[in-house]
# Entry
Amino acid sequence: MLKLRLTRTGRKKNPTYRIVVMENSARRDGRPVEQVGYYNPLTKQSHFEIEKIRKWLNCGVKPTQTVQDLLRKAKIIEN
# Structure
């Protein structure tokens, strides 16, 4: 089953995250199917490729709770 989730990048004590489509059984920093955005929790900066995210959501990909909250704040999804 595919999920829309975060993978960690950046240095120690300076995290940044990529928002990716990935198999739910894959490890956190494994190979993603596709990268669809990024999020920096320190500066609250984020970027979403809205077309790709909507395409994957329409295909049945489920976002994790954290990604779902980020997408709600950006008003990409409702609920």
About this structure: The chain has one domain: 2-73.
